[in-house]
Amino acid sequence: MNVEKYGAGSIVVSDYDPNWPALFAQERKRIEQALGAFALAIEHVGSTAVPGLPSKPIIDLLVGVRSLEEARQRCINPLEALGYVYMPEYASWIPGELFFRKGPPGPWTHHLHMMEQSHPNWDARLVFRDYLRAHGEAARAYADIKRALAASSKDDIEAYRTGKDGFVRETTAKARAWRAAARDQ
To answer: Which member of 17, 20, 126, 153 has the greatest number of CB atoms within 10 A?
Structure first.
């Protein structure tokens, strides 16, 4: 997929900002008010949700809905009223979700991923986040990969994202095994 270049220049991976959880909580309240019962859950995901993890300074929100089709009909306008821009062209890259971003025309401040909670990516994003929160060595390895990719990718966000895919897949598999083992105890 040919996605536009990154925001307003080169990809920057910033040191962890302890304000990120508060920014998420603030945005979560706004989304809850705008979507009401359509939002079944709103989770902080992505690197800004992992204490100590360097990240692009973009708050990733994962919004669970009962039906993606219903969300397409009823949730786009309320989110646009909050400053989110619906990006339908991303559907081929991230099937099974509605993707929005917010902020100046790059760099963006928020990404919102809306999907049905039954979608496999719902669980994958949460278990990946939780594993990195619990395993500092994995978070540090991810930070090293992200910084190297930001340096080598310059403004090519697709190269940056795809460069992380192997680590994310492997770590998600470890995270699922970790969670299963914890349940068995």
So the answer is: 20
Kindly give the confidence (pLDDT) of every residue in the chain, 185 residues in length, as a single tens digit, with 9 standing for 90 and above: 344 445 556 888 999 999 999 999 999 999 999 999 999 999 999 999 999 999 999 999 999 999 999 999 999 999 999 999 999 998 888 889 999 999 887 678 999 999 999 999 999 999 999 999 999 999 999 999 999 999 998 888 889 989 999 999 999 999 999 999 998 88
Q: Say if residue 107 is preceded by a cis peptide, omega within 30 of 0.
A: yes
Q: Domain total for the chain?
A: 1
For residue 2, being part of any structural domain is answered with no
Q: Is 116 helix (H, G, I), strand (E, B) or coil?
A: strand
- Looking at residue 55, the DSSP 8-state letter turns out to be B
Structure tokens belonging to residue 171? 């770590």
Centroid of chain to Cα 143: 15
The whole domain housing 45 covers: 20-179
In a domain, 62, yes or no: yes
**Does 1 fall in a domain?**
no
